[in-house]
Amino acid sequence: MHITFVKKRNPDGSSCGKCEEVERRLIRDGHLPRIDEVAIADLADPDSPGMRLAREFNTEFAPFFIVRDGGEPRVYTIYLKFVREVLEKLPAAAQ
Prior knowledge:
Blueprint: E1 2-9, H1 17-28, E2 37-42, H2 49-56, E3 64-68, E4 74-76, H3 79-85
Parallel strand pairs: 1-2
Antiparallel strand pairs: 1-3, 3-4
């Protein structure tokens, strides 16, 4: 399983408040080590990795998570749903 966390950077270079909040929750809940990749959707750079992923997965929400596990990639825009459906179901060895 490969998990990508996409967070937004505003055109003025500041971080997205909601993205920072979700990152703090990932750290607090002990889930950050399970994230394989962090991609920045830089609103000032349409070719930034996160902006390309947002276009590829047709989402306008940030932050979001992309979960690849052999089947069709899944996109989660709601942190608690992502935790319930993905992180809490990982086997102990994967945690």
